[in-house]
Prior knowledge:
Layout: E1 9-18, E2 27-37, E3 42-46, H1 53-60, E4 68-73, E5 76-77, H2 82-91, E6 92-95, H3 99-102, H4 109-119, H5 126-136, H6 155-167, E7 173-177, H7 185-202, E8 205-210, H8 213-219, E9 222-227, E10 230-236, H9 237-242, H10 247-254, H11 286-289, H12 292-295, H13 299-304, E11 317-318, H14 321-333
Helix pairs in contact: 4-5, 4-6, 5-6, 6-7
Amino acid sequence: MTSDLKPLLKATDLHVEFPGRRGGSPARAVDGVNLEVSPGEIVALVGESGCGKTTLARTLLGLQRPTAGVVAYRGAPLSYSGKALKAYRREAQLVLQDPSGSLNPRHTVYDAVAEGLRIHGEATDERERVADALSRAGLRPPERFFLRYPHELSGGQRQRVVIAGALVLDPTVIVADEPVASLDASVRGEILSLLLRLRDELGLAALVVTHDLGLAWNIADRVAVMYLGRIVETGPVEQILTAPSHPYTQALLSVLPEGGEPVVLTGEPPDPTRIPGGCRFHVRCQVLAGGLADEAGVATQCRTQDLEVLAGGTGSRAACHVAQAEAQRASSRA
């Protein structure tokens, strides 16, 4: 359900750098990103560990200040004053990967969910709002969970408590960082169904950070594939996952059931302090290694020419010399 409304959350030319070790080159964790999330839309941010997706998510939430670029909410750039950030974090909530680490083992479920209300000075009708949040998160009857502690709950129930803690403030957007990675396969579907139901019933927007393209297929309206600090392909989920243009996306998809012959990428992602010249994926690219870039006449560009940062919006785009050459040929034939 992709919305045609103006973006609720938007990143424009976003960069985040961290100091290098012993005075070395800085690590470019986010190296030029344009990304939009519209009301009622679920966007999946996909990539390997270390690609920068969690840093991007934290920056979108105001937890990390960008080195350059702008994060805007409802069209207004984020202000990093304490009061403004507190107000923004009421609207934009984080759901973390590990519910056991997110919940204080000494706090009851009631206190864990009520914490946000107390921080923001909204303790009026606290009991009613906590009960409503737990109920919306699928813990019913909610009163039965009030006095329980995290260790008394299953993994799926703990994740529902974390989601209830986000819902209690009636946010407009949720950033979920690997929301089902630590759960059993039997519980993952329940949590994904819950997120979809919350989107449909409450109009929530969500950015779901994951390494799992299968999860994206089940939940997202759009997908943004991230590699070494940049989004290298983006577009509607059906198009990206059935006809991916970027070799990296193709490799990620190949490991899924019915994904075809698995693509084994050589080596590890490069160090973000030493991003290679040319296409940042070329040192691992199966298309370049297999000679297809030579056939397309762009092998030299792959090795030496950087690609432009992909624009935001809802259209399909890929930062790949081969894909762009093929698209140009197809356009000329048409």
